[in-house]
Structure formats: structure tokens, C-alpha cells
Amino acid sequence: MDVGIVSYGAYVPRFRITPTEIGRVWGQDGKAMGKGLFINGKSVPSPDEDVITISTSAARSMLRRVDVNPADIGALYVGSESHPYAVKPTGTVVAEAIEASPELCVADLEFACKAGTAGIQMVMGMVGSGMIRYGVAIGADTSQGAPGDALEYSASAGGAAFLIGREDIIARFNGTLSFTTDTPDFWRREGQPYPSHGGRFTGEPAYFKHVGEAARRMMDRMGTSPGDYNHIVLHQPNGKFPQRMASMLGFSNEQVTRGLLTPMIGNTYSGAVPLGLAAVLDVASPGERILVVAYGSGAGSDAFDITVTDAIKEFNRAAAPTIDGLMENTRELDYATYAKYRGKILMKG
Amino acid sequence: MTVARFWRDISSRYNLYGTKCAACDRIYFPVRQICPECRRSSIGKMERYKLSGKGKVYSFSVVHDAPPQMSVIRPYAVAIVEMEEGVKVTGQLVDVDLEDIDIGMSVEAVLRKIGDEGPDGVINYGFKFTPRLD
Ligand SMILES: [Zn+2]
Hints:
The complex is a heterodimer of chains A (349) and B (134). Chain A has 349 residues and is α/β, with parallel strands linked by helices. Chain A has helices spanning 19-26, 30-37, 51-64, 91-97, 115-128, 203-222, 240-249, 253-257, 262-265, 272-281, 323-326, 335-341; strands at 4-11, 15-17, 42-44, 73-79, 105-109, 134-142, 157-165, 171-183, 186-187, 196-197, 231-234, 289-296, 298-308, 331-332. In chain A, 32% of the residues lie in helices and 25% in strands. In chain A, helix 3 (51-64) packs parallel to helix 4 and helix 6 (203-222) crosses helix 7. The termini of chain A are far apart. Chain B is mainly β. In chain B, strands 6-5-4-7-8 form a five-stranded antiparallel sheet. In chain B, strands 2-1-3 form a three-stranded antiparallel sheet. In chain B, a hairpin with a 4-residue loop joins strand 5 and strand 6. The site of zinc ion has 8 residues of chain B, from loops.
């Protein structure tokens, strides 16, 4: 029986900061930085938000859209590189908050920005084998760049949750594969507050090689070409990389646009591809085909070939905020407030 | 607050579980062992009851003189929310500009960080209220 997406939910914090404002403080041409990265603003979590609260909001929105008993959820995986605890799972709080506890498998996953899609693959296997009826995979992050570092212009916060099952699926997984190598393009050592990166090394041998290989191999396996897809959702560390990658693969700008959120909210890391896919599912019609390729530094890419089913017509999208809805009622922060909210100011005691 | 004391209240703090008196149908939050109206006749009839999380601002106050842990977000609003079920629940209002808060405003519960026991302590999560668009 087909395995697919039964429901999904998304969450993006309400605060934003612009590249111009960041550049103002660090003596850089923020406007030009933003233009170079194709980022007009990035989301900033409130001081009382973290990966646990973002994951919970996304998962609750996911459950509001369907009539599924949370007790039938047999697994929940949260992929992130900013889990609030070094030791103590994010997933246990989320599972309790959506009342899926106690009879389910829970684990936190890490693989840079692709831990959320790794969770989707794990749950697909468990659902497909009949081990569980429903599983939840969440990708969420509240990423930080070091103050003044180029990453500060992009590192943002958000996440999306997917309910995977075999019944009443709104989108079917036609196939998935991963392309993985040992490539040290981006890392953070235990105990370090901010990540380090290999500068230009992050482009060609890292992002473009892995995303490109995974996409090409996925299309080879499915016997498809770019023209067979309505949308392509790619990992989006900035707005430029996915556009260039898509064009290198033979996709048009129109196929990329709907799933490209980084220009509005920045790089949500593990949340990026899940949120991009949510944005596409917000508008997708039956029969539409989507190619999804996530990327995680270190490095690897997860590809998915997805077809939207007729069930999406009856799907209650309006029961929870859409991506467009999450882009409304935002509030812009100045750098000082942003620095205070993100704990970049050293406090006494 | 100790880890154990917070942990015992998780179902109330995460999912707004209160109590319903099956004798008079009154709903209570937080959890009660005995209905103050029915008293002895409510014994054995108090049931676990989950609030919908939706309500309206009944009253609110803006806190300027915040405790140290809350200084990052000061000033902030705390509201008494009249829930759909009629019971009143106190909680912080978030994701709203203070000048936009009105009595009668529709709100709903969301999960947020309530606080922590310092950088090496446990993080406590619980409900706060955000504006509801309806
Ligand atoms: Zn009573």
C-alpha cells in the first residue's frame, strides 16, 4: 500500500530582522549583503520560543487539519541542530504536548539541515513495513550565526511537521534516496555556541554536488525529467543557491518559486525544506508532482519524489495557519532587541 | 519550583487539563479533588477534562516591574482569560503589541517556555495565550 503525507503543519516565529539593520551595526553594506544572498529578512524567535515550542506548534497545526487520534501515532522524530538540551530529548515534550505519549518511539535526530527529512525517511520505513500506523517527522531550528559573521544574515527559526501514514494520504511518496559523503563544509563542536564553516568550500563540493547528485539519481530511478514536475523544493541556505541549482538541473524559475521561503524568512536550517514543502502543499492540486531535495552539511542530501493525490481536495487546510498566513502580522526588530532576544548580550549572574 | 512539582502538573501546563464535576457539570482549572458547590456529593465524580484552549481576555495587566528572569521581555502582559468552557485561567499574553490588547479579545493557548532553573537547569514549558484570528 502507498505511503504518504496524511497531514502537515508549519510554524514561523513572528519577529523579523532585515539585512540592512544587521549591516548597520557591523559596518557592512547590509542591503548589498541581502541582495547577494537574496534574503530580504529573517525570522527571529521570541525569547520564550525554541525548537520544542516551534515543533509543538507545527505538530498541533498538523493534527488540527485531520481527524486522527494522536494515540495512533507510533513514532515521532525531531530533526534539528538546535535542540534545547544537549542531553534530554526534544521529542518527549512534543509527544506529550500533542498527547501521542506514552506508547510510541521517540528520538531526536541530527544531520545539520537535513535531520527533518531523515526523520521522514525513517517514518516512511516504519509505516511502510506495518510496524506503526502513523508517524510524525519534524524539522525545526532556531539557528544562530556568530555576531558579525556572514551567517548572521541568514540563520533564522521555523519548522514544519509531517504526519506520515497509509490512509487518506494527500501526497504519495513515489520514492526516496540519499546521497551521502564525508565532506567537512560546516560544523559546530560540542559546547561551542556558534558554528564554523569552510567559506567557499560550502558551495561546489558541498551543496551543489550533493543536492545535484541526489536530484539526478532520483530522476534516474523514477525515469523522470524536470518537465514532469510542477514544483522543486531544494534546501535553501540563501535565496540564490536553490535558484542556481534548479537551473543547473534544468528546472525553470517558476518551478522553484513556491517552495522558496528563504528570501522572506532566512535559512531555517532543518526547517527549510519541510517549510518549503508545506508552502507547496498549501496550494497544490491533485496530480501535481514535486521533487524535494534536502541538504545537510557534513554532508548529504535526501531526495523525495512526491505526487499530490485527490484527497487533498477534502483536506482541511484552513484549520491551521498556511505559510502565507505565517508571513502576516510580523514585527521588525532593531539589532539591539534582536541581540537581547537571542542571548547575544552578556548578562550578570 | 522543584522539577518534581512542575512535572506533576505537565498535563495541565501543556494541554490545559482541568476537572469536570459530573454531579453539576461545572468545570475547574486547575485540577480540583472536590467540587466546592457539590462538596460531598462530588466525591468520586470529578473527571479529567481538557479545555479547548480558546477563550477571551476577561482582564489584563501590563507588568513593568518584572522579576529578573522576565527582564528580557519587559514590559509584558498577563491576562485572565475566560475560556469557552466558562472557567477563568491566568496566563501571559504573547505575540501581541501591548497597545492592541483589548478586553474581549479572542485568544488561544500555545506552548512556550515558562522559565528555567538557570543555564544548567531544567527548562519548564507551559501554556501562554496568543491572539486568535477568527
Ligand atoms: Zn459540582
